[in-house]
Amino acid sequence: MSNNSESFERWIRTSFVEMNTELEETYFKQERREAVEGVGDAIKTRICGEGHDFIVRLLAEGNTDEGFDNAFDLLGDLGLYLAALRRHELTNPAREEKSPFQEASALGLHIAASVGMAPRFATAHLATRNAAVNGRQKSFTTLKDEFLFLDYNTRGIFSFMRCADALMRILPLGVSHPVTETLLQDAASALRAVIKYNDTLYKELDADRFFYSVRPYYKPYRVGRHEYRGANAGDFSGINEIDMLLGLCQANDPYYAQLLVDKMLFMTPEDQASLRDCMRQRSILAQFLDVAPESAKKPWFKRNAAAFLEVCRLHGETAVQHHDQLVKRFIEKPSAALEADKLAQVTASGPPLPVLLRALETLRDMRNAADRNDIRTSYKEIEALKAYVSA
Ligand code: HEM
User: Fold this and answer.
1) Which residues span the membrane (predicted)?
2) What spacing in Å lies between the alpha carbon of 138 and ligand 1's midpoint?
3) pLDDT tens digits for 66-109?
């Protein structure tokens, strides 16, 4: 790392976090916690100015050629800075046609083009690739609820990755292999871990603190002329690899394909490659149905297909938990207290809340192979497999 990027990173891990925390405490004491304009202006000016000084030096240095890890970390630091400016209402894409932060935009676009990601901070910066220094990982604030949110997101993401990894290993073995049952049991155990972590998050995260002091850092913002949606815990390939390998979602379904394209640049290049590879594979569900007519009575079929159906059931359960518990408690309910102008700015991905909720509901129903005829689900295929297993 160059001296300039090291100094910027040190600032992001220290003064930046302290100033954000101080602002959050001030906002949170107000009667209308969401009203942040004109509050704490001296601190906001410091965040903006101090960050800008580092960025001008980095831009003049023009050096992103220090390997992927450094460029990736710098992109994250820059993204955290821009997300904080957005959170403190020093910029707002709804009232601007381009980012008022020209130098930060230029630096962001330069690094993003060189690493092959969107020019903003992504989930990986705060989760799976967030290095801790002396026991403290990167964050916006030192609030207990932010660390709870980040660490449980990271645990959930790693567990989904563990499930995807086990499923991928089935492909070269095939559905009749004795070890396939073991891999399916590993996949199931990883999904049980997701359920356990989601449950802890649901019980321990403070809904007001999350909604008013953590979530606002995940709003969309502009870099240059374009607006980029906020990060969310789903921006890693593992979740979609599970969807497609199980055969619950299809890469050629117009709704699901759009989602994959939209999230591509929010993932690390490694995840992008892994997702592309997975899109070419035949699902495990299809492979079981291919051989079912001649093999359904065989003991290996009953054993492996039953283990597969259990993985599908658990995957559906994680989606129900996400939508009916996490999204409901931490986004939908507190949004009801907001006035229309503030509500329009609530969601990280950008669309109005009802549109976002419908999209998440669609995903939940696809992952549960629900009996819906307005969207494509694998209801019939899963029911057919269940019938073969119990025959
Ligand atoms: C997307 C809320 C935790 C996995 C989303 C979205 C919302 C949301 C509103 C839609 C996009 C956006 O606006 O950001 C929440 C809340 C959480 C939480 C309130 C907890 C307080 C988690 C955790 C995971 C997770 C722990 C597990 C890794 C996902 C996935 C998506 C997503 C995979 C992408 C859409 C999908 O494929 O289902 N989340 N989330 N979320 N979240 Fe969460």
Assistant:
1) none
2) 20
3) 667 789 999 999 999 999 999 999 999 999 999 999 999 999 99
What are the tokens at 108? 């962001």
Residues 112 and 148 in one domain: no
CATH number of the domain that 42 lies in? 1.20.58.600
Q: Which of 119, 136, 164 is the last residue of a domain?
A: 119
Query: Which residue lies with its CA nearest to atom 31 of ligand 1?
Result: 234
Give the C-alpha separation, 182 to 167, whole Å: 10
> Same structural domain for residues 165 and 202?
yes
Whether the pTM exceeds 0.90: the reply is yes
Q: Report which residue type is found at 285.
A: L
CA distance linking residue 186 with residue 2, whole number of Å: 42
Ligand 1 center–CA 323 separation, angstroms:
8
Does the structure's ipTM exceed the value 0.90?
yes
Helix axes 144-168, 299-320, angle to 10 degrees: 160
Q: What is the DSSP letter of 133?
A: B
Measured between alpha carbons, how far is residue 60 from residues 11, 50, 186, 271 in Å?
19, 16, 50, 31
| Strand, coil or helix: 205 | coil
- Ligand 1: which of 154, 210, 232 to mutate, judged by most atoms within 8 Å of the beta carbon? 232
Maximal CA-CA distance, the chain: 74
For residues 148 and 97, state if they share a domain: no
Residues lining ligand 1, Cβ inside 6 A? 149, 152-153, 156-157, 160, 198, 201, 205, 210, 230, 232-234, 239, 322, 326-327, 330-331, 347-349, 356, 360, 363
Please indicate, yes or no, if residue 135 is contained in any of the structural domains.
no
pLDDT of 63 > 90? The answer is: no
Chain centroid to CA 250: 20
Q: Could you please report the per-residue DSSP string of 296-330?
A: TTSHHHHHHHHHHHHHHHHHHHHHHIIIIIIIIII
pLDDT of 352 reads 86
Higher pLDDT, 63 or 206: 206
Whether residues 83 and 163 share a domain: the answer is no
CA pair distance 10, 363, nearest whole angstrom: 39
* 270 is a domain residue: yes
